[in-house]
Amino acid sequence: MKFRFPIVIIDEDFRSENASGLGIRALAEAIEQEGMEVLGVTSYGDLSSFAQQQSRASGFILSIDDEEFHSDEAAEHAVKQLRAFVEEIRWRNPDIPLFIYGETRTSRHLPNDILKELHGFIHMFEDTPEFVARYIIREAKTYLDTLAPPFFRALLNYAQDGSYSWHCPGHSGGVAFLKSPVGQMFHQFFGENMLRSDVCNAVEELGQLLDHTGPVAASERNAARIFNSDHCFFVTNGTSTSNKMVWHATVAPGDIVVVDRNCHKSILHSIIMTGAIPVFLMPTRNHYGIIGPIPKEEFEPENIRKKIEANPFAKDVKTKPRILTITQSTYDGVLYNVEMIKDTLGDTIDTLHFDEAWLPHATFHDFYQNMHAIGRDRPRPKDPLVFSTQSTHKMLAGLSQASQILVQESETRSLDRYRFNEAYLMHTSTSPQYAIIASCDIAAAMMEPPGGTALVEESIFESLDFRRAMRKVDEEYGDSWWFKVWGPDELADEGMGNRADWLLKANERWHGFGNLAEGFNLLDPIKATIITPGLDVDGDFDDSGIPAAIVTKYLAEHGVIVEKTGLYSFFIMFTIGITKGRWNTLVTALQQFKDDYDKNQPLWRVLPEFVAAHPRYERIGLRDLCQQIHDVYKAHDIARLTTEMYTSNMVPAMKPTDAYAKMAHREIERVPLDELEGRITAILLTPYPPGIPLLIPGERFNKTIVQYLQFAREFNERFPGLKTDIHGLVEEEVDGRTAYFVDCVML
Ligand SMILES: *Cc1c(COP(=O)(O)O)cnc(C)c1O
């Protein structure tokens, strides 16, 4: 396998017809003669974007010409520039070789802080260019050889070997695809390497994911070290599966479990699968529909005990709760101080589990100190083990489904890996996808500090710059409307600002989550929730408004796809894949939207794809459509309705697993929407947005939820194409209309 990592030469004279130009070009030629690519540039340009070349290069040669040192002042400037560049590089990459190339200057002319970062000091005309080239190439190759983490390295070697395989997969390194035209297309699209490295676990030299042996195990250990945990298990079927593994390793039928009501559906699936009895902690919610933190008092053991006593199925269970699962980083980026949670709970819960699907980056930056589950220098709890499950594919550079489980042991307990692996095996395919394993390996290696810290800092920095840009646009528009980015009022004028600015303080209006405990919650700035006009944080509607669904549809037709859409909010993320181009394009697309909205442009012009699918909107103006929807939301007081339905108290009528069993046994009825009140659901009911389950098997429909479903039905009839999606609803055509049903437990 040949990788492209050129040697970058930075020399003012690279193209000049003078002695130093000739000298440096001779060196470049000699390097190329040895088979290594060279990239020659004459200046640094923008330092930080140039330093980003460190990810593409195998070494840098920085020249210091005599001319640059012609006076003390000039020398000082040259050294300053050199230092700035070296610092920029080393901030991201401690290992890439750096060489200085001088005419007559020697190390005497450079300060120690620069010298100590160098791999060599080359002097023109002292050695032959060929000799110098070989020396540089040797250093560059040594550097490249250290890059690949264990599993990826083994996979490269394997794919290179070119051995014939008799094992599955049956496509035999891609050859099967070549036998048909569509197969050829597939092969050409994904390419040889992806298919050659798609192997099965019969290949001994790659190790086994399922038993954690060989290079796979070495990579898991490497990732455990990088993520500051005692153990790391790679998972190739998403954090949905990681969650089930943690649960099945810990929870058995009849156990009490304490769960964030704002949890991912995989946690609810875990409840059903393990036969647990859930007691829920209730998060706050503001009227934008943004879900806030669970207040700190909810974690008090006394409060949890009260909840257990109030639960008809839990009250007689004598053992302590087996697990606590918290969504650590909500969709909108609200985080908890884990040390405060650990202190509050003490040893009243057997195992602590933080669903950090959105938070694998936190351990790499002090900004998030204590606001994530497991990290450097964090105290061990006395008794409970701490688990963190992370979707490396969401925030870091993993392929879809790349996920990992991290474990911190306690003072008194270690993790029995054999025992844990029984649950791991229960949920892992015996044919794991090796490209996903490799991406787990790479995602971890990429985050090795200082490079990982730099990546996270850049994401935070870009997200702050985005917020500053949005505020600048707002100011410039003066009294005219503009979008707001949800977050604290205080925002640093430049740079990273202060971590304390991002703590949620009690009773601040911007968040609307009420009286929060001091230091308990932080907003992760790299999640940016954008608020559209029309609704305020108290749930009061303006006369006019712009429902977010229209904005995100508009953005989608203009090539900007956002992560999640709420009623008057949508949200974007500044992952480590973010670029200035991406967020600036969003800002300009939003300006186009504003322009088209203010002019009330007809939809056929501004949403052509939408209109092609739904011609009835053809002649409506953009502003008029927004207003029609806004009026409907307002008439139904929808902000309050959705808040109430999520915060209303649910008394379970059955254990979730028992209600689900009714479905497996077909002891269910498909109940029409209008007759649902009081009935027990057998399924998970999840409206999108926000994608948070509203009812879980075994709970009864109350009036508010039925009202909401009636609203959704009416809305869907009035505004086809802008449907409120509710997973769990069964739709059937009855007399030419769409009727809705829910599978409920048979009476
Ligand atoms: C996305 C998500 C999951 C599931 O992760 P996948 O990797 O998509 O399976 C679990 N929990 C939370 C909070 C999530 O947002």
Automatic annotation (TrEMBL):
GO biological processes: L-arginine catabolic process
Cellular component annotations (GO), alphabetically ordered: cytosol
Domain Orn/Lys/Arg decarboxylases family 1 pyridoxal-P attachment site: 389-403
Gene3D superfamilies xrefs: 3.40.50.2300, Aspartate Aminotransferase, domain 1, Orn/Lys/Arg decarboxylase, C-terminal domain, Type I PLP-dependent aspartate aminotransferase-like (Major domain)
InterPro entries reported in the protein's UniProt record: OKR_de-COase_N, Orn/lys/arg_de-COase, Orn/Lys/Arg_deCO2ase_major_dom, Prn/Lys/Arg_de-COase_C, Prn/Lys/Arg_de-COase_C_sf, PyrdxlP-dep_Trfase, PyrdxlP-dep_Trfase_major, PyrdxlP-dep_Trfase_small
Record PTM N6-(pyridoxal phosphate)lysine, positions in chain: 394
Family named by the database record: Belongs to the Orn/Lys/Arg decarboxylase class-I family.
The name this protein goes by in its record: Arginine decarboxylase
Origin species: Chitinivorax tropicus
